[in-house]
């Protein structure tokens, strides 16, 4: 599942390790980050984000559904777009699907770069796009049953920052 | 001679996760095959349509043949 | 070394787990992050940054020196400032001192928050301040001996973003 | 009757990591106790001075007594 992409960026060929996965079962963010870091020894910095199912608000479970023919290809396109925009040594993007319990990790994004700003901005960019511009549908189970969740207005505002 | 129609997100609550419809299938035929409340929900222009895994820029241009898969995709939420 | 701070933020008392350390020996960022995540179960998101000694440029070793009476108190003040500015469930800030080999982790920052933007911005803010506004002096050993490193102009620009 | 003077960063290359100077010690006395190249380096106004762990806003106001610690801190770099 780990691949190397070659993309043209400002007339220079750049190569970055990518690791893009849709996961049907739970994963350990710490172990995922540890292994990713070993694959990008040249990187001076790695910025990461872990999103979890919140353990409050009376949510008993969260279900993320996806559409196979679009969701993973969409994540791969997002990775290529990100690699084309920032100078990265590597980009990891793992996203859960299926039913998750509170506190379970949903998403892990990690961007490795020579320079700190590239790593931070790339991780931030990927998260904003996964959050409101990727093919996932989310519903929560509460005491009174399942409820579909729409993106918050703040998510659209976040996305708009990238132009 | 049928087309698989897949419903994502809250549309699945209105029309089931998947339906078989008679081929060939165009936009009018798709609407005609749906229950009233699903038809109303799909009236929202933000609902996208994919034909064999490709998004259609004009969903009303749908022309699906036997064995094809069509998916109706409401606005997403993730992360 | 794990403490809870109480600070006043916009007239509300906020409480955040803080874990601020100066480390004389090597550490595992993955394990550090794993343990930190367990202490902030309420957080929906954790943004992190790992900075490592670069494995290129002919650098054989890096030495970070500090001044005991100022360095750790300065990091604790930075933590309180960060907690006062963003709504956080927790903030981890570990910084190595001493002599390090290429690829060794130098710094680990992790910010846990209910909302993604708070976590990203807090981690970014802390890194910018540790990089050019904290009491560390850095020198590299190359084939021809030790060389002191000054902050890059880009680091001062990064810091200036926060006003 | 002495003051410990600590030199950080590249100042340590010019003056050693630590020196003992006679107490009481003021700014003129500190300068007088330094080798020429360290005195030149400290002429840079970005070099800060800490007295018993507290930064002085005006380093020339230094008045250190027996047993005190004074530190000379050049511009930092970290991360």
From TrEMBL, chains B, D:
It comes from the Bacteria. SUPFAM superfamilies: MoaD/ThiS (SSF54285). InterPro entries: Beta-grasp_dom_sf (IPR012675), Mopterin_synth/thiamin_S_b (IPR016155), ThiS/MoaD-like (IPR003749). This is MoaD/ThiS family protein. It comes from Altericroceibacterium endophyticum.
